[in-house]
Amino acid sequence: MEKIVESVWMAMIVAVILGFVLRKVNSWMFERKLGEKKYSLPPGDLGWPFVGNMWSFLRAFKSSDPDSFISTFFIRYGRTGIYKAFLFGKPSIIVTSPETCRRVLTDDENFQLGWPASTIELIGKKSFISISYEEHKRLRKLTSAPINGHEALSMYIPYIEDTVKSALQRWARMGELEFLTAVRRLTFRIIMHIFLSSESEQVMESLERDYSALNYGIRAMAINVPGFAYHKALKARKRLVAIFQSIVDARRRKKGGEGETKKDMMDALMEAEDEHGKKLSDEEIIDLLVMYLNAGHESSGHTIMWATVLLQQHPEFLKKAKAEQELIVKNRPSTQERLTLKEIRQMEYLSKVIDETLRWLTFSFVTFREAKADVNVNGYTIPKGWKVLTWFRSVHLDPAIYPEPMEFDPSRWDDYIPKAGTFIPFGAGSRLCPGNDLAKLEISIFLHYFLLDYRLERTNPNCRTRYLPHRRPMDNCLARIRRTSSHGEEC
């Protein structure tokens, strides 16, 4: 019996020693080469060899409490606003406070984009997430006006209106449906029209499926083996590139034909040239399409779904939002049949609803930078070449900034102007999301028509939530859309 006890104790001692050694491997590999600078690194933990903190990250985001991952850093090291970790295959610095996030996002001299190589492989080496600062300025200048400009937004309104109204009427006749899936297809149809003037159901369904696979791979571990999400995402990217290349080739063959005029963003991208007369290459055009079509429907679709759900869960907010939309229609000239950009910008309460949804949801919970040189932040050293993760969730859900942060409350925005760095749903600095105004336009138009004439009945209101790649109900919000009269009674 004594020998058995002794063996157990020896096994436990060996396990503790082995665990200690393994926990130090990443530190020895990545901190030792820093010399004296390693003593000024932020507090933190580089985790296990090779995988680092990824298991902890994935475990938290696959649970019902994704914020438990970052909370462990707060508990162990205090709220320093900056921590070291090993994530997505690289030694990293996580920044979690408004001040540190803003510093990293706006300091182009010391920080550059630092997305994981696996993400760049999926979105594109010539997309906004991987190109240099100078190239980003050039491409942003060429593409911003056709997407976010006043004239462009006004031009998109009629199509978005017609598409939203048609979809809502169709959904109300369908019975039960996956509301999130339906809304994502709606926003995908809109972005497809803006960029490609395409409404082919076959093409859209194929592209939408591939984009779904692409998104799952972006937040997955980069394991390029059949059956894993990243492998499926790479295959989806290959199909997307082939489709877009065929469209580019077809457009080039038609170039110069009689009556040919610019009609969508694809044409604008193909014709765009900078002050030196340089045009975009096929690779640039295709990678921009991959990026814009992905970002242009995923974030809008999820935000629309959650805004609708959250308003239904809070009748007092729904009533106020509905009253504002009814007043806009009531004050409209009798000869006016459509929404105008001016009316949309008068939707003050709805704007608060959207901002609160963006804060509560935090669709992109993190973004990536890389230190171009050794940088001192809050007295700590961020070594050159280390990744820097700006953790948006910790900012938007900080109770010191937003009391009871998990509560959906549009009234918190009454007479409230957020301080710099405390509200960053679209990022900040020169890399601010280029389609933010278009996204808000889509969301506003959808909510306008939904609030006037429809309501949502969820089948499983207590359905569990998943957080990867984005926050959503496990059943994709299984629900029925009910048509109502102007007085709110079912028709």
UniProtKB/TrEMBL annotation:
Subcellular location: Membrane
PROSITE patterns named among the record's database cross-references: CYTOCHROME_P450
Alphabetized CDD domains for the sequence: CYP90-like
Key words of the record: Heme, Iron, Membrane, Metal-binding, Monooxygenase, Oxidoreductase, Transmembrane, Transmembrane helix
Keyword Oxidoreductase (UniProt): yes
SUPFAM superfamilies associated with the record: Cytochrome P450 (SSF48264)
Chief place where the protein resides: membrane
Pfam family, one: p450
Top-rank taxon: Eukaryota
Obligatory cofactor(s): heme
Residue stretches in coiled coil: none
UniProt binding sites for heme: C433
Recorded metabolic or biological pathway in which this protein acts: Plant hormone biosynthesis; gibberellin biosynthesis; Hormone biosynthesis
Gene Ontology molecular function: any one: heme binding
PANTHER family assigned to the protein according to its UniProt record, in alphabetical order: CYTOCHROME P450 26, ENT-KAURENOIC ACID OXIDASE 2
Job of this protein: Catalyzes three successive oxidations of ent-kaurenoic acid giving gibberellin 12 (GA12), a key step in gibberellins (GAs) biosynthesis. GAs, which are involved many processes, including stem elongation, play a central role in plant development.
Protein name as annotated: Uncharacterized protein
